[in-house]
Design brief:
The complex is a heterodimer of chains A (132) and B (334).
Chain A (H helix, E strand, L loop, with lengths): L1 E3 L6 H13 L3 H15 L4 E3 L5 E2 L1 H8 L3 H9 L6 E3 L2 E5 H23 L1 H13 L3
Chain B lengths: L6 E2 L1 H7 L8 H7 L15 H9 L11 E2 L9 E5 L2 E7 L6 E8 L10 H11 L9 H34 L3 E8 L7 E14 L2 E12 L7 H14 L6 E4 L2 E6 L3 H14 L11 E2 L7 H7 L3 E2 L5 E2 L9 E2 L1 H9 L3
Parallel strand pairs in B: 1-5, 11-14
Antiparallel strand pairs in B: 2-3, 3-4, 4-5, 6-7, 7-8, 8-10, 9-10, 12-13
Chain lengths: 132, 334
């Protein structure tokens, strides 16, 4: 697995990539390139992996930056899919990425909710006022 | 349910109270249609509004007014006076809320056409004084104020429940918190499974907090649910960027003993009836340059090199640089 950093790519370069993707690339490469440029513009990390590769819970915990205790909780609840090889658990990288995508969306929304507390409070007031 | 203390109608603010304001702000908000900035209307800085509130407060037993206005025979108006200003207050027989529905100046020994009493007499004889009664918009503003009070009390209660739970589980354990809907009689709003797990792994020791917030189905996605969520998180730990989220589960990693330490801080807030305030990130992050301008305006979050999400609204120059971001930036090729 290779992790690519994207922070120094300019929007002009991304525009050029999009233009190439739309004009010269075939349909499959075009989808790949456009979704790549979308990810870069959104500031997401881009990870290219073999989706069938599996890792251990310890490796997964490290990759996600959480404790093994917390990771096992997520595995027990089925929020990250896993399977067993004998007594050991294994996690498919593609499942970990699926989890991480949702996780990043949720974290982004939480950051926005923290920043917009006044707006939420006003909307909450309206929900109460509608019942009065 | 509503506070009965006197409050002006929008018509009074727009048409009757054209001078003697202690501040220009309310008139400006009115002119711009920013009615939300008028709250609470009973506290708007005008001498006759102050007098109305003084005369008609939360308890009817303490009412103190001149008497009924004799010329208003079609609408029961109670008179209040403050130097040249006169006002007529109408008490809503259903909600008991007192409304300042008309105001004006006493002029020319009550002979002037613009005199307060003259205009009431004129409206009573040839107009329709009931047109002065609060409109739907007035009623809406009243409901919003009441809703604001109910919400604040609801959040104080939620904060208190977090304290009660934390007393039990600060050093480890799970506790369920039941939250009622803020509006009385609406039953359960959500329940929360609140866990403190003491993690003692090799090379990693922490007290991890987890909150699973489970709303009743009909409240999923509501602003109230977000309001509650943010309140619970801030009560436990105010720094915003310490919180992680997956779905309805929120987690935070504290040093061993962190939640025992939080007990005293939270107790002080509960005792003084104050809500905890969240603390936005205190470090300055690196992120992809072209995101910033638009995001600051829209208030969308961006992802920093270190992985934290933040809404770039603050002046970052004054803040300390995030060490993780700085390390990652140094690793990047030029």
């Amino acid at each position: 697995m290779q992790t690519l950093q994207t922070a120094k790519i300019t929007s002009e370069q991304l525009d050029a990539l999009d233009e190439f993707a739309r004009s010269d690339a075939g349909p499959e490469l075009r989808d790949l390139l456009l979704s790549l440029s979308r990810c870069v513009r959104a500031g997401d990390e881009v990870v290219i992996v073999d989706g069938d590769e599996t890792i251990t819970p310890s490796q997964a915990a490290e990759r996600l930056g959480m404790s093994r205790t917390h990771l096992y909780k997520l595995l027990d609840r089925g929020e990250i899919l896993s399977h067993r090889i004998g007594r050991d658990r294994r996690i498919r990288l593609s499942d970990l990425i699926e989890f991480e995508k949702q996780h990043q969306r949720d974290r982004r929304e939480l950051a926005e909710r923290f920043a917009h507390q006044r707006k939420t409070a006003a909307a909450a007031n309206d929900e109460i006022a509608d019942l009065l | 349910m509503h506070n009965r203390r006197a409050r002006p109608t929008l018509r009074v603010l727009q048409e009757d109270l054209t001078s003697d304001w202690d501040s220009a702000q309310p008139r400006r908000a009115l002119a711009d249609g920013h009615l939300g900035e008028l709250h609470p209307l009973s506290e708007l800085p005008h001498p006759i509004i102050a007098k109305a509130v003084d005369s008609f407060g939360a308890s009817a037993a303490d009412d103190n007014y001149v008497g009924p206005i004799a010329s208003a025979t079609r609408l029961r108006l109670l008179e209040i006076k403050n130097s040249q200003w006169r006002g007529g207050v109408w008490e809503d027989p259903e909600s008991r809320v007192c409304w300042l529905v008309v105001a004006g100046l006493a002029k020319g020994g009550h002979q002037d056409r613009d005199d307060f009493y003259k205009s009431i007499e004129r409206e009573n004889e040839s107009g329709d004084p009931t047109s002065w009664l609060p409109t739907r918009q007035d009623a809406r503003l009243l409901k919003q104020e009441t809703a604001e009070r109910i919400r604040t009390e609801w959040e104080l209660e939620a904060q208190r429940l977090v304290l009660d739970a934390l007393r039990v589980i600060h050093a480890g354990g799970t506790h369920r918190i039941d939250i009622s809907h803020p509006v009385p009689g609406k039953g359960t709003f959500a329940h929360i499974d609140f866990t403190v797990a003491t993690v003692r792994e090799d090379g990693y020791e922490a007290d991890e907090v987890e909150l699973a917030i489970v709303p009743k189905d009909q409240y999923a996605g509501s602003a109230l649910l977000w309001q509650l969520t943010i309140r619970l998180l801030i009560s436990i730990n105010p720094p915003e960027q310490g919180w992680d989220r997956f779905g309805d589960t929120y987690s935070n990693i504290g040093e061993p003993g962190a939640w025992t330490k939080r007990l005293d801080e939270l107790d002080a807030l509960v005792v003084s009836n104050e809500l905890a305030v969240s603390e936005p990130g205190s470090t300055s992050h690196y992120t992809h340059r072209q995101h910033l301008a638009g995001r600051t305006i829209n208030g969308d979050a961006v992802r920093a090199l270190c992985g934290a999400y933040f809404v770039p609204t603050q002046d970052h120059e004054s803040m300390q640089e995030c060490p993780t971001c700085a390390d990652r930036l140094a690793e990047l090729p030029d």
